[in-house]
């Protein structure tokens, strides 16, 4: 299929969600710039409401729904940041949110989702959860897909508009890939504004959803094993694959150990706590530093901060960092 989210859609989303989400800060990091040998700008989306970029897409989707649709409630499949964001946004707009999660999801994410106002229902796995979501949708609820929805993607793309204004002249952008909706929206915005920008998608070993789909030429189901849980989408889609082919110049896959090492670095040197799904972009940039040309200006999107301190401590012990 042809990718179906335009710069106009993203600009409309920005107007729709204005005042509902934070304009998150961006700044040059001297310590990371020194490590990469190029000026590096961090986009601190980890400071967004609900702890990640996900509220952007969720507000855009739910605000575009009719009052009757919101009254019937929304259902979604997620074990991470999308679950938290849908729950918070639905509560803000007076809607019920039912969140279907695999039974293996971290208790930390269940607690955050319920605290945000969502009702959690556990399923055998992600595939079973998606099937159950279709059943609820047939009964009248709106299924808010976490990444295969043009309204969600357009909302996520508003980060790209912000970052382009905050950090003009970027030559390289590193961004995480889960199911691909975030990279799709940000890529659509920033490539439209600057076609010369090089966008590098990042996955972790054990969460190579997009890499495997592109290799196969079609979406393929995976069973994620990476500790970067929020990158563990069970499959890409035709829409997000089309976006990856159009906007991503390459995909870099990094091991969990490197993502954890950079999580620790960012906490120590930038005073921000991020998920492995965010720290992995720094790990990927370090892997590509030899290819950065003189005068390169690098952007790193730190996409989320929903991580339990106990998990971070356990990962440090596991990987010796």
Name some characteristics of this structure.
321 residues, alpha/beta, Rossmann fold, 2 domains, six-stranded mixed β-sheet, four-stranded parallel β-sheet, globular
Kindly state the number of beta strands: 10
Poorly predicted regions are none
Instruction: Give the spatial strand order of the biggest sheet.
Output: 1-2-10-7-8-9
CATH topology of the largest domain: Rossmann fold
Number of domains: 2
Q: What's the helix count?
A: 14
| Structural class computed from helices and strand pairing | alpha/beta
Average pLDDT rating:
96
Q: What top-tier CATH class of the largest domain fits best?
A: Alpha Beta
Can you give the helix content as a percent range?
Answer: 40-55%
Rg over CA atoms, rounded to whole Å, is 18 Å
Question: How many strands, which pairing sense, and closed or not: the largest β-sheet?
Answer: 6 strands, mixed
Rounded to the nearest angstrom, the distance between the terminal CA atoms is 43 Å
User: What is the level-2 CATH architecture name of the largest domain?
Assistant: 3-Layer(aba) Sandwich
- Strand percent estimate: 15-25%
Order of helices and strands: HEHEHHEHEHEHEHEHEHHEHHEH
Global outline: globular
Question: What would you say this structure looks like, in words?
Answer:
With 321 residues, the chain is α/β, with parallel strands linked by helices. Helix content is 48%, strand content 15%. The protein is globular, with a radius of gyration of 18 Å. It has two domains: 7-53 and 150-319, Rossmann fold; 55-143, Rossmann fold. The chain has a six-stranded mixed β-sheet, with helices on both faces. A four-stranded parallel β-sheet has the order 5-4-3-6, sandwiched between helices. It has 14 helices and ten strands.
